[in-house]
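Sequence design from tokenized structure. All designs in this work follow the same two-part layout: the structure record, then the generated sequence. An example of the structure record is given first.
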């Protein structure tokens, strides 16, 4: 009951009501209405009760020195002001404190729906094979070593090993790889990934809580639990501020024998400017960031970003666009590039494979008219064969071309090796027992990536590449954008392990876009997600979202965070100077509780003014 009353009084509507009555209590007595001073009681009750509740709660439940908080000092000043009959001073300090708490709450509210979406990836049922009979059963009933059949388009319910069939698996949910991975008998497959083509039978190896997807969910849950809120700076200082304020007030009373001076010291010593400094500056910074398409979910993230010295990047969708495109058309016979693209796109027009679709899109954008195909046949995970204008053609990966008896000569092998080193997928075209051309596909590097890495380095911020892609693909991309530290072939839990190791040497920011990045985004000091094209789970797991997927905003985010911290420190330093002068004037008897409260309020207004200037501050590195 008490908590419900406290929550009601501490909300914006009642706080505003208290502020209106406080203003009236100041204006009316000065316009010939002395009874108006009593209106301050409304503000004292509305804003003072939550303040007293917080101070008492911390005394009872906090441990050690943390029992002494800013709420305790302000409560003492409020009670002292009431005792000498200065209701305006009592209401003013309580009102300022309550406004600061509400502003801070506004900066720290965060959406936490990502975990539910992650859980929704897990299928509810699986198709089990027992005694040569298929049966659909709940995932919870699947046991280790059960045989499961996975049809095209289905999500794998458990981890397993393929015992029959060949296919291509979309592993982006687990590894972030932009290319589907060809799988055959003996290969390991993971829960939460998608079977794109052929039907496969797998033997379950990890089920229930041991499966990859469930481990991913647990990592996000654990990281969420480990996210401790930032302690308010006013409370950090309160442990010495409270006894110091009491000491000054007692000395002032002993020396002057004037209780008014002692109470005035208590009023002007209240850390209201400290309470306002952080939330107002952070709100201004978050507002400015929003104008630039950067959504910052909490003040804690903004504060931590200013201390970040290393940024870890996922590759796909962050440094690259995350979409396959034809990068090279390499004829190895008398064919022209256009003729090779026409033949390959004509054959691939019947395929559902992502590589085939990308080749077909390339032909469409080049306005190429496709040829009619006959006797189309697809070998899942390997390639296709067809007849075009009476001639038989084969298109697929190197393994498929080798299986049909066509070997690459040394020059072709060198080309394939170079393409692999650049992280590109190759589709070979063959006819008459000869390889007639190669079409390579890759994920396109974002043009702003290299400049962005250079700007971060100029801000003394290191860049690390963490990716599920193979080592060669990672090395090629890193060389293009200027990253020297590379960690490749990583599963989600390995990304988390690497982030944890990096955190041992400093503050780490992680930027990613996929479901697989969610745990790493959570465990990092600051997580940044690609908001427009990234998965909802990654966006919800992150502390910051780049809504236009423009990674060049990262240096801006780092600059804004640094500037915000400087603004907060400046506001605190100057407000403390004002408090020091006000305390001196209070001890000398120049200020009374009412005028002291006004001077004290001027310091708070100064803090808000600095925050307002931050809102329109120009980015210096653009």
């Amino acid at each position: 009951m008490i908590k419900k009353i406290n929550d009601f009084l501490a909300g914006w509507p009642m706080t505003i009501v208290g502020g209106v009555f406080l203003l009236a209590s100041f204006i009316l007595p000065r316009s010939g209405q002395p009874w108006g001073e009593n209106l301050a009681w409304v503000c004292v009750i509305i804003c003072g009760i939550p303040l007293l509740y917080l101070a008492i709660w911390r005394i009872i439940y906090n441990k050690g020195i943390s029992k002494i908080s800013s709420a305790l000092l302000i409560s003492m000043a409020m009670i002292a002001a009431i005792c000498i009959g200065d209701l305006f001073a009592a209401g003013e300090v309580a009102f300022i404190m309550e406004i600061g708490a509400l502003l801070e709450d506004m900066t720290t509210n965060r959406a936490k729906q990502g975990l539910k979406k992650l859980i929704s990836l897990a299928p509810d049922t699986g198709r089990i094979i027992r005694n040569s009979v298929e049966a659909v059963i709940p995932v919870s009933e699947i046991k280790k070593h059960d045989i499961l059949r996975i049809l095209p388009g289905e999500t794998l319910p458990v981890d397993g090993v393929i015992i029959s069939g060949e296919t291509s698996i979309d592993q982006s949910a687990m590894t972030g790889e932009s290319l589907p991975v060809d799988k055959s008998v003996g290969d390991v497959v993971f829960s939460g990934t998608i079977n794109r083509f052929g039907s496969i039978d797998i033997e379950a190896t990890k089920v229930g809580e041991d499966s990859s997807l469930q481990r991913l969910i647990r990592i996000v849950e654990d990281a969420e639990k480990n996210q401790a809120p930032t302690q308010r700076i006013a409370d950090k200082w309160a442990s010495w501020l409270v006894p110091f304020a009491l000491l000054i007030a007692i000395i002032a009373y002993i020396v002057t024998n004037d209780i008014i001076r002692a109470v005035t010291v208590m009023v002007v010593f209240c850390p209201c400017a400290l309470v306002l400094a952080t939330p107002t500056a952070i709100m201004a910074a978050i507002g400015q960031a929003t104008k630039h398409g950067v959504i910052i979910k909490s003040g804690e993230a903004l504060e931590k970003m200013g201390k970040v010295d290393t940024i870890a990047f996922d590759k796909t969708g962050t440094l690259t666009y995350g979409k396959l495109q034809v990068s090279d058309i390499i004829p190895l016979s008398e064919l022209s590039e256009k003729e090779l693209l026409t033949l390959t796109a004509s054959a691939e027009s019947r395929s559902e494979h992502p590589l085939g679709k990308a080749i077909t899109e390339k032909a469409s954008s080049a306005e190429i008219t496709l040829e009619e195909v006959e006797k189309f046949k697809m070998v899942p995970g390997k390639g296709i064969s067809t007849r075009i204008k009476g001639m038989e053609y084969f298109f697929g990966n190197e393994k498929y071309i080798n299986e049909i008896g066509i070997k690459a000569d040394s020059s072709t092998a060198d080309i394939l090796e170079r393409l692999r080193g650049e992280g590109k997928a190759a589709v070979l075209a063959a006819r008459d027992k000869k390889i007639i051309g190669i079409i390579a596909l890759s994920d396109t590097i974002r043009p702003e990536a290299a400049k962005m890495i250079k700007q971060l380095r100029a801000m003394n911020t290191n860049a690390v590449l963490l990716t599920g892609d193979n080592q060669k693909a990672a090395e090629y991309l890193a060389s293009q954008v200027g990253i020297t530290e590379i960690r490749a072939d990583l599963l989600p839990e390995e990304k988390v392990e690497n982030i944890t190791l990096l955190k041992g040497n400093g503050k780490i920011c992680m930027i990613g876009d996929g479901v697989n990045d969610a745990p790493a985004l959570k465990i990092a000091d600051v997580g940044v997600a690609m908001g427009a094209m990234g998965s909802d789970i990654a966006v919800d797991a992150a502390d910051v979202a780049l809504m236009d997927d423009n990674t060049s905003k990262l240096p801006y985010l780092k600059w804004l965070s640094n500037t915000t911290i400087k603004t907060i420190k400046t506001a605190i330093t100057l407000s403390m100077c004002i408090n020091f002068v006000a305390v001196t004037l209070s001890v000398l008897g120049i200020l009374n509780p009412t005028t002291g409260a006004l001077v004290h309020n001027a310091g708070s207004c100064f803090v808000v003014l600095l925050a307002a200037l931050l809102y329109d501050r120009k980015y210096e590195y653009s």
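The chain has a mean pLDDT of 83. We note this feature because it recurs in several other targets discussed in the main text.
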